[in-house]
Amino acid sequence: KSATATQTEKQTAVDTAQSALTQAQNAKDAADKALSTANDAVKSATATQTEKQTAADNAQTALTQAQNAKDAADSALSAANDAVKAATAAQSAKQTAVTDAQKA
Asked: What is the pTM for the complete model shown?
């Protein structure tokens, strides 16, 4: 009886240890999964932040290009206005010359 009882106790201890090991493995697997999920969330947030920064950089570049185009258009408009003023002055000078010639 004693040997049988000891054998049963040993088997119970082994079964209990095996059960504890299985539970520990399950807990480790759950922790690994949670860590993986957290890492994925960090990667996603980092990628999203990078995308946002890239979009902000692209928008700033587009804004700079638009400002440069506006400056060029302003400059072209100013040059056109100067040309109109010069042409108007030349026309006025010609008209004055014609009028003076007619008087003479």
From this structure: 0.52
